[in-house]
Amino acid sequence: MFSDTATIEIRAGKGGNGRSSFRHEKYRAMGGPDGGDGGHGGNVVFRVDHNANTLSSYRTARLIAAEDGMVGGGNQSRGHAGADVIINVPEGTMVWCDEELLADLTVNGQEAILAKGGRGGFGNAHFVSSVRQAPRTAELGEPGESLKVRLELKMVADVGLVGLPNAGKSTLLSVVTNAKPAIADYAFTTLIPNLGVVEHRDFAFLMADIPGLIEGASEGKGLGDEFLRHVERTAVLFHMIEAASNDAVRDYKVIQKELASYVVDLSTRPQLIVITKADTVEPATVEAARKALEKHTKQKVYVISAQAHQGLEPLLDAAVPVVKAARDEHARLQAEKDAVVITEIAMPDMWHVEIEEDGNYRVIGERIQGFALRTNFESDEGVERLRDIMRKTGVARGLRRQGCKPGDKVSIGDSTFEWL
Ligand SMILES: Nc1nc2c(ncn2[C@@H]2O[C@H](COP(=O)(O)OP(=O)(O)OP(=O)(O)O)[C@@H](O)[C@H]2O)c(=O)[nH]1
Ligand SMILES: [Mg+2]
Q: Which of these CATH numbers, 3.40.50.720, 3.40.50.170, 3.40.630.30, 3.40.50.300, describes 157-323?
């Protein structure tokens, strides 16, 4: 079955404790305090990876934890920071905690820190003052954040089956794909979309039955706005209307109105209009409904009986080119988005991060400074490209390790910008 949700507990690393120690010096019993700070705990970072397609790998995971920071060393050396843990998720993954949406991850390479590692404790070297020459105090590291999150993937299918409840959507899916959805003679049999693969004339595409929509769905009636979210992730719609309907055009309009009232207008998605369950009424009734629908929509209307396996070939034949066109369009939009994203950058030379007196972060390194020099900070695209380079080269992670948060100022060379 297609899995589109997973619940996991994520836990960031605990900060390392600060050390309390004193210098060993020849001829002196005890030198000055030299205990280093503990390292920061690792973060739990979600990252969009367009090679991932499902959340299935997280269905069995209970806990995903980042590494703890190490305790501070003698000689004022800072403990090692705990490594971040990266959770790769497909495009379109939403991360929820209770009812709150924490992250909506839509673009390849996009990252979000959802549990922040604890700060390392200060070592005793930190507490020296004119009146306290030999402090023994060292801080404990802070615990890392920990929370339970629900991942949800807006489903992606080439074709979504929409229509009123009981229109025969799941039945069609069960006949033309390998899926085995529940089918029954009452409304709202389907509550979660089922996904199947259609193999037709050497072409394969994904089809999903969407739960039935009713009037008011876009305002949440019958869980409708939940259901419409699934429609959002399907490229082509089969709009399905029962042959036994009293008024096929009215049924059609009800669904179109709900599709149009969603957050984004879904009524303009490419549609094939299908009269279903043709075997349940007289041929003349089917014909009248077909004529009325074609007149109203100015579009060809297909007639099927999924149960009797009738009319399916012409419908699937018509679907193939529409699905192909939708995929091409998607690829074109994706290519536009990717145009500002750099896929691989060789940056073998060294860089490091310093924290300046005013708390701003400074990245020092010849190549990254070179990139910054070539960045037009007036242009959002330019800044996004630089950020992407920083992600790809690990500089972004280096900054986070040092505690850099969204809103903090980052300087590279003569340029300063806000961290996102
Ligand atoms: N005679 C006949 N009955 C059909 C046909 N297609 C579906 N049905 C019946 O219609 C009823 C509803 O079918 P479903 O496929 O569950 O309808 P649905 O649109 O998925 O319904 P919801 O999930 O509730 O929105 C079931 O009893 C099916 O057996 C058909 O082509 N001919
Ligand atoms: Mg159904």
A: 3.40.50.300
